[in-house]
Amino acid sequence: MAGWLLHLLPDDFSVSSAGLLGWGEQPATAHSISVAERSGVSLTGHRSRRLDPAMVNRADLVLAMTRQHAWGVAARDGTAAARTFLLPEAVRRGRATGPRGSQSLRTWSESLGTGRDHRHPGRPDDELADPAGQPIEAYETLAGRVEPLVLALAELLAG
């Protein structure tokens, strides 16, 4: 997800990736690299890292794959719940709110959550299952779902 956004957004955007597990400095899987390359994204230099409170505090928008991940973000920084979304949820709410325009990214992100109970991010069908350890077809299925959402989000962010 981060690789696609970084590939699509203007250079003045900063995009990073981190997870809740302590896998520390592991490269992307061969399946991830292969599937991402088909979309013109290189993950060969990617290394996993554990999310920490400072990363969350700096982030203007946090995208999670599952509700459990979103809760993990909020556990590291309670103020982040207002700007933490599952990717499909962010796109749906962004389309309803409208493109970011001249707003700061943090202001726009927080506006996406207006009226939402932050204890219940997204819907069950917004979750994006991690294909780790599965055949390449699971990675392709995930990519088929994620890529149009990332394109839509990039359009909303960059206008």
Describe this structure in words.
The chain has about 160 residues and is mostly helical. It has one domain: Rossmann fold. About 45% of the residues lie in helices and about 5% in strands. The chain has helices spanning about 1-10, 30-35, 55-60, 65-75, 85-95, 105-110, 135-159, and strands at about 60-65, 85. It has a two-stranded parallel sheet. Helix 4 links the parallel strand 1 (about 60-65) and strand 2. Helix 2 packs across helix 7 (about 135-159) and helix 5 (about 85-95) packs parallel to helix 7. The longest helix is centred in the last third of the chain and has 23 residues, at about 135-159. The radius of gyration is 15 Å and the shape is globular. The two termini are about 20 Å apart. The relative contact order is 0.18. The mean pLDDT is about 90.
CATH architecture: 3-Layer(aba) Sandwich
Order of SSEs: HHHEHEHHH
In total, the number of strands is: 2
CATH names the topology as Rossmann fold
